[in-house]
Amino acid sequence: MIFSVELVYIIMGIIGLCCSIYTFLDKANPRRLLSGLFYFLYSLTLLLGKVIPPFYIGIMVIIMVLIVGLGGLKKGQYGEASAEHREERRKRLGNLLFIPALLIPILTVVGSKLLVNVKLGSLQLLDPANPTLVALGIACIIAIITAMGLTKSTPKTAVKESRRLLEAIGWAVVLPQLLATLGTIFTSAGVGKVVSDVVAKVIPETSLFWVVVVFCLGMAIFTMIMGNAFAAFPVMAAGIAIPLLIKQFGANPNQIAAISMFAGYCGTLMTPMAANFNIVPAALLDLKDKNHVIRVQVPTALFVLAFNIILMYFLIK
Amino acid sequence: MVLIGVALIIIGFALRLNSLVVVTVAGLATGLIAGMPLKEIITQFGEAFTTNRYMSILIVTLPVIGLLERSGLQNQAGHLVSKIKAATAGRILTIYLLIREIGAALGLNSIGGHPQTVRPLIAPMAEGAAETKYGEVPEEEKEEIRAHAAAADNIGLFFGEDIFVAVGAILLMKGFFDQNGIDADPISMALWGIPTAIFVFIVHSIRLYLFDKKLDRKLGKRAKNDPSFSKKDVSK
C-alpha cells in the first residue's frame, strides 16, 4: 500500500520529537530535562515501535511512568499569542478559520469511504488494516498546510503550538495506550474467566428478570473494569447470554447482542479506565477534576442502563 | 488471586494516585501473580503499547488545532454563536448530540472527536452562547459546560455507531455468535439498537435542557440584579 498505518505513527512520532526539543530547551520548566525525556521516549515508541524489540519498548514505558511517578513531568512556558494579538488575527481571518478545522472531518470521511478500495497500479492507496486512521492522518497533513498558508505561520510555530497542547494534556496522552496494555495482561492472566465465574455463581437461573439484570449489570461492570465493552461481550455472552438467555429462555440473539453492547457502553461512560473517552478529554479541555466528564455522564448512563434491562426483559418475555 | 490487579486499580483510582503509576503497578502485579516471568511481562507491555498506538492518534491533529487556536479559532466559534439569539449552551450541545449520533449511525464516526471538534469548536460555541446570555461566566460553570460538551460527543458516538452495520462491535458479535453456532444477522442487530439510541437522545437532551435551567438560575439572577451588567460583547 502507498499510505500505511505505520506512516501515520511516524508522523506522530516526528511531531512528538520536535515538541520534545522545545521541552528540553524550556528554561521556564523546573524539570525540563526529565520532562523532555518523557516526551522524547514517548515519541521514540511511536516512531520506532515496529523496529525496537518489545522488551525495550516495555523498559522505555516503565521509565516514562517512573518520570511521572517521581514528579519529573512539569509544564513550561509557551509564548502564547496575547489576547489582543489573537483577536486582531481573528478579525482579519473571520470564518476562514473554520476551513482547516472542517477539512479534518470532511477529508477523513471522504477518504475513508471513497478511497478505501482505490488502487494505484497494484498498490492499495490506503492501508486496509485501518483506512480511517490513515485517512485522518492524511486529512491532518492537508489541514496543517492549509492552516499554515491561511495564518501565514511557519512549521516552527506549528510545532510550538503542538507542544503547548501536548504539554497541556501531559501524562494523560499515554494513558489510553497503557490501559490497553493492562487489558492485554488482564486477559492473559485470566481475569475475564474469574469475573464470569463470580457472576455465574450469583445468578438465579430460574428467574428471567434477574438473569437479565445480572447480565446487563455484568456487561456494564466488566466494561468498567476493562475499560472496553468489546472485552466484556465474549465473556458475558459465553457465560450467561448463550446458555441461559438464548438456549433456556429462547431469546433472539440479535436483540441480545444489540442491547448488551449498549449496556456495556453505559459502563464505558462511567469508568476512568476508558481514558481516551473520559480522561484525555478532561485534560484537553483544562478541567481541574479529571473525572469531571464521567461525573456529567453518570446520570445518563444509569437511566440508559435501566432502560436496557427493561427493554431486554420485555423483548424476551 | 488475579483479581488483586483489579483491586489495585480500584484502590489507586479511589485514592486519586497518578493513574499511569496505578495502571503500571496493577499490570506488573497481575502478571507476577499469574506466574509470568518479569521479562515476559515487560515484553508484553512493550508489545501491547506498540499495537495500541492508534489510540494516541490525537497527536496528529495537534499542529492544526494549535495553529488555529493561536489565530483565535475558539473566539471565532464563540463569536459566530453570539449572533444567534436563541442559542444556549444546552441547545447547542443538544444539536451536536443529534448530529454526532446520526453521523455515527451512518458510519461517519470521524465527523466528531474531542481534539478536532469538541475543543476547538463545540466547547467554545457552548461557552460563547452562555457568555452572550449571561455576561461573564465563572470558571466553575465554564468547566461544567466543557465537560458537558465532551460528554455529548461520547454519548452521541457510542449509541449512534452500533446502528451502523459495518461497525466493529456488530462484526465482533456476529463473529462470536458464528463461532458458537448461533444464527445472527448484522442488519437485525443494528436495527435492535434503535430503541436505545432514541431513548438516549431523549434522556440526554432533557438533561441538557435542565442544565440550561440550572445556568439560568445560577447566572441569570445575577445578570438581572446587577444594574451595571451589560451583555458581554464577544466580538470585542
Automatic annotation (TrEMBL), chain A:
Entry keyword Membrane: yes
Stretch forming the signal peptide: none
Spans traversing the lipid bilayer: 6-25, 55-73, 93-112, 132-150, 171-191, 211-244, 256-274, 294-316
Cited InterPro entries: DUF979
Keyword Membrane among record annotations: yes
Entry keywords, A to Z: Membrane, Transmembrane, Transmembrane helix
Protein name (record): DUF979 domain-containing protein
TrEMBL record, chain B:
Pfam families (alphabetical): DUF969 (PF06149)
TM regions (residue ranges): 6-34, 155-177, 189-210
Keyword annotations of the record: Membrane, Transmembrane, Transmembrane helix
InterPro entries linked to this entry: DUF969 (IPR010374)
Name listed for the protein in its UniProt record: DUF969 domain-containing protein
Native species: Heyndrickxia camelliae
